[in-house]
């Protein structure tokens, strides 16, 4: 038992078990809330800066600081829509970034699938197919679309 004098001069009795129960519930609530807090997703610009800029450059023109170390110059990402009849090729861009290249196993660009691991959302392709896709991959592709000339 735990005794405490109230402001009115009356002794208040607390059971140690009640105090411990209260503390354990408070701690459990804090743990649950911490586990449920979700880190805000990175913006497309941040994903680009952290993963692509070193090769493709700040503006996506293919002039990044690592260009001299590569056997083939990186693609100019600003011309993707122009090279596709004025339409940004979102699905092909996401396939290339994610790393699924089919038979082209010797591609120079690294696979970024594991780097872009994030909650999957349904992305609707131009032909109406609904494809479960990592949300970070969609965010990055949307950012690349903003870089088009």
UniProtKB/TrEMBL annotation:
This is Cytochrome c. The lineage of its organism: Bacteria, Pseudomonadati, Pseudomonadota, Alphaproteobacteria, Rhodobacterales. Gene3D superfamilies: Cytochrome c-like domain. The keyword Iron applies. It comes from Falsiruegeria litorea. The chain crosses the membrane at residues 20-40. Keywords: Heme, Iron, Membrane, Metal-binding, Transmembrane, Transmembrane helix. The keyword Repeat does not apply. Residues 39-148 form the Cytochrome c domain. Pfam families: Cytochrome_CBB3.
């Amino acid at each position: 038992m735990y005794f405490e004098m109230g402001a009115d001069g009356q002794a208040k009795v607390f059971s140690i078990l009640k105090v411990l129960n209260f503390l354990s519930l408070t701690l459990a609530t804090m743990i649950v809330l911490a586990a449920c807090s979700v880190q805000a997703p990175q913006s497309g610009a941040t994903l680009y800066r952290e993963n692509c800029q070193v090769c493709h450059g700040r503006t996506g023109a293919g002039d990044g600081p690592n260009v001299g170390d590569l056997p083939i110059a990186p693609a100019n990402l600003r011309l993707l829509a122009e090279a596709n009849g004025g339409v940004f090729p979102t699905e092909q861009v996401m396939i290339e970034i994610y790393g699924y290249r089919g038979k082209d196993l010797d591609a120079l660009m690294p696979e970024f699938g594991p780097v872009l691991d994030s909650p999957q959302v349904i992305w609707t392709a131009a032909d109406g197919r609904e494809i479960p896709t990592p949300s970070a991959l969609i965010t990055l592709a949307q950012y690349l679309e903003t870089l088009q000339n």
